[in-house]
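Quick one - first record:
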Amino acid sequence: MVRNFFAKLTLLRLLLAGGFVVLLVGMLFMGTWISSTIEERVVHHEGEVFALYLDSLISDHVESIASNGQLSSTDVVGLDKLFSGTEVGKRIVTFKMWSRDGRIIYSTNPALIGRQFKVKPDLAMAFRGETKSHLSDITDDENLFERQRWSRLLEIYAPMHERKTGSIVGVAEIYQTTDVVARAVGTAKLKTWLVVIAATLVMYLLLAALIKRASNIIAAQQNELHDKVRQLTALLAQNEQLHERVRRAGGRAAAINEQTLNRIAADLHDGPAQGLALALMRMGTLAESCGTCSSTVGKGRTVADEFRTLHSALQSARDELHAIAAGLPLPEIERLTLTETAQRALHDYERKVGFAVPLTVDELPSEAPLPVKITLYRLLQESLANGFRHGAATDQRVRLTRTGEQLIVDVTDSGKGFDLRTIAANGHLGLAGMRERVEILGGSFSVQSAPGSGTLIRASLPLRLLEEENE
């Protein structure tokens, strides 16, 4: 739920909320620290002022401590009068006079006089001349009387000085109610919190203005980026369409090329081949007529010999023309499946070389575009022929597999192989032609070979080609 809430926040609102939380935490920390410091300073100031005031009042009543460490009866009476019914007495809850060994010399609570307690750090520092004051929870052993009425008091340790010499003769411990301090601290804290809140509010408004400006800049840049992304997406779509058109054009070109080869083969068969056949027939007739002719045409050759030479040359030309015409056209593969197309290519090849080529076929679709079947037939025809002619391979193997919408064709052999760098440097029309046929359909073509390690030709052909628009 929290994650969904933050996911719905805009960047501006998230930054404003985050800034508000940070400033709020900072305000609370700063306000608390300043309030604590103010309270400490007010308590210290109150203790200093009251200690000086009290020292001036009772200095005449503590002279006797300097002589024997005890207060005289006259000094005790004087202190009792000072703390009974006077303004000073009204402000003081409890008054104690301590000796250096932790013994209470005098107290407004007579039950404590003469008792000895552990010397606390504040008492020891007061004997060194420092006035110590703090708000006490009155948990010490000597505070049993105070705990019965109050939970918290202002505790002041003030050194008492001898008037003539200025030496410290004792330490007065004074307990006051926290009313005076609470009023002073409360007013100071209120003013402090108002200032801190006002400063925080101003900083938040300034921060909000900066964030708003930055957010507007970021939003403008995001809109510009989105526009560029849309433009790029449109360009990529156009590029993909152009790429598909190129692939379709390549497929059509392959089909048209095969049709052209078929026409050329038919034209060769019906034209020059027929003319050569007629010439051979006439040449045979003339050779028979001149079989007994003994006329020579130079270098001891007779006319009959020349006729036989011409007849042999024409016969060889006609055979080569028939071979070329027979190798140009494809067999009728339009109605064949991919597996049947591969089997036909291997059958035609096996008939020429005289040995079988194993074919391994995984599950393949029954239908495939004609350009793919044409490319598969030519790829097998060329790769097998190259392996036999250039690699002296007689253990060739073919494997057809399907990966997604791709037909993977592997043609391997254990022939003598070749150096790929040499082939790349010198060029190889057979490999180049196979690569061009495959890549023009959007497929991929690779060759792995090394001298003495055989050859692997691998091609990937798309099993689907996009149809023309509006077909």
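second record:
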Amino acid sequence: MSMGFSTMAALTSSASTPETENSDVERSRSRSNKSEPLIPGLPDEVAELCLVYLPYPYQALVRSVSASWRRAISDPAFLHCKKSLSLPLPYLFVFAFNKSTARIQWQALDPRSGRWFVLPPMPGHYSKLASPPGLACASLPRQGMLVVLGGSDAESSMRSTIVYRTSTNQWSSMAPMPTARSYFDAGTINNKIVAVGGSGTRENDSIRAIECYNPENDTWATLATMPVGLAKYDSHVVGDKMYVTEGWTWPFMFSPRGLVYDSKTDAWRDMSPGMREGWTGVSVVVGNKLLVISEYGDCPMKVYDHDKDTWRYVGGDKFPCDSLRRPFAVSAVEGSIYVVACGLNVGIGRLSESEAEKGELQVEWQVLPAPSAFRGFSPSSCEVLYA
């Protein structure tokens, strides 16, 4: 903090090439901007702290205020300072669609204020799609990074990889997946994104290939192939393992299949019978605990016991079915579960250990009603990112 962000930016930019080398006017304007104070009347060191404390998504908007503000907020030292002060807070990012208007969009919710922000539209072919195109989403929460993979257009499955960063409030196209796929799942293991299964370019073409994306160097690698192709996916990562299940589907005539991927050995095995049979809804991980919100009856919540290979019901409040109607998209952070429901109403479940029974979990629910403008939207995916 002894050297201001603007001073550091000036040092680093002196070795770079201006975007418009041939323009004497631009070079002159750039030199003039460097001498401008960030906020008139304040030392730059104090003004920079003011910018650091701006909440998401306003930090991205300050880029349009002035060249000096844009330069300050774009400097790597700015983000480092924000992280070192533990300023990033969790926001809920929701991918939703409206059947009646054929509209898709991403929104971000500040759970502290209940305020929603609409994200820029996804680039390329995604902006032309009229419904959730079978894409998969994953995230690196602490890096403020959201990753959208694959999907399908009117003709075939796709290989696309696009990344949203909270620091810039922008989307970027990255290295495409080696395999085109849609209607699949993805998860995060050791800060890498793993794409699992799905459908290929031909109808009923089940994909067993597993691929891993490294966002640090924008590359893909191939992992151990799944032993079988599953028909429907729900998955979650607990520790170094990724659990993948078909889940129970109407009319409940066939027992679901399930697999477990161990990233340490790069190998697959069958899911244990108790886990497979009790996985009756959408899953979420809190700490190292795997939970499901059942998609039947009054939507009871269960937690999996690895030692006993059984599921136990979570005590406390009943799930607020009157306010939260299916379909659900679920995520979690810092001991809280976020359930996005039809109309984008959000239920926040706070887990704690029961005082009456040691080791037993209980939940307390709070509902954040969505704006009336979201009434026709249904959630397709949600992720928690720090911003």
